Amino acid sequence: MRAPRSRLLVLSFLAPLALAAVACAPVEEDSSDDAASGSSGGPSGDASQCDLDQLPLVTDGTLTVGTDSPAYEPWFVGDDPTNQKGFESAVAYAVADRLGFDEDDVTWVTVPFNSSYRPGAKDFDFDINQISITPARADVVDFSDGYYSAAQAVVALDGSAGAEATTFDDLKDLRLGAQTGTTSLTAIRDVVQPDTEPLVFEDTNVAKQALENDQVDAILADLPTAFYISAAEIPGSSVVGQFQVEGGETEEFGLLLEKGSGLTPCVDRALASLREDGTLDDLEQRWLSDVVDVPELR
Prior knowledge:
This protein has 298 residues and is α/β, with parallel strands linked by helices. The protein is built from ten helices and ten strands.
């Protein structure tokens, strides 16, 4: 992301998952040097503002959560965000519980990747969709504190030039590709800096097909997605290596809210509670790979 050893490791967490498409974290391409981790400036307030009857909601009494359709594994299972299976479905319901909602009080709406972080009013209370916290986005939407730290990873067919890469220099003269509007595409351009412009695909399914058709030597995705692609979707492929964007700084996924939302500090409190009692770690262990021995690309 080597193949047989890492394949066996990752299959341990993939066993309960059905074969499905996966997606990577969308982002505008942005070269800002400003840090963009954690909450992006939502209003502060005392705990009473987070009482259930005080929460500012799109629909009274209902927590409206957005994600894209289809909803990909391992973040969601069976293309059904409502079943609480998959890491992000489970996180959404855990946050809802800490906010005081029953399961039946949570409703889901479809929000395409690239529209979620556009400026303006939202028809959801928060969106959960592997959305990386970035300076450009934080200017126009709120982000919760991060709920998952993501590395970028490289997937290539076994025996190909891409599979032999161990450094960024090895990747520079290869044909690389990623989904449009993602941190993976930004990472190719800003970190790898290949000799030729990367191929840009409408979604990860198209990127995977391009890899199988020898249109690219390797594709990039976030690490859990890369594991799933390699182990469950493209036989004879491997996760070649991983790396962090922006000089090793941790890339984080955050819940996305309307700019200035009064719900932002309450969501942060819910996430802090889930982090402190170990729930977030438990959900990550259950739904995402805990394999950490993927080689670092430098």
